[in-house]
Design goal:
single chain; about 70 residues; mainly alpha; 2 helices; about 60% helix; elongated
Length: about 70
């Protein structure tokens, strides 16, 4: 996992614990989890929108039917 061993992960967790304190860690974990799920949901929505393509056999072909604004 990114070339990090157990020792490096322990040091990183210790630094995070020192910076944020033990009481805020559950809040940070919850916020991180929500952010990740929202990001994945956004990616999934974007993929669904990209799958909906206009019909290439339609008579319009992306033109505005001659009406100019």
């Amino acid at each position: 996992m990114f070339g990090l061993g157990i020792g490096e992960l322990v040091v990183i967790m210790f630094i995070v614990l020192l910076l944020f304190g033990g009481s805020r860690l559950p809040q940070l974990g919850g916020a991180l989890g929500k952010a990740m799920s929202n990001f994945k949901l956004g990616l999934r929505d974007n993929q669904n929108q990209n799958n909906v393509l206009p019909d290439p056999t339609s008579k319009n072909n992306g033109q505005n039917n001659g009406s100019h604004v």
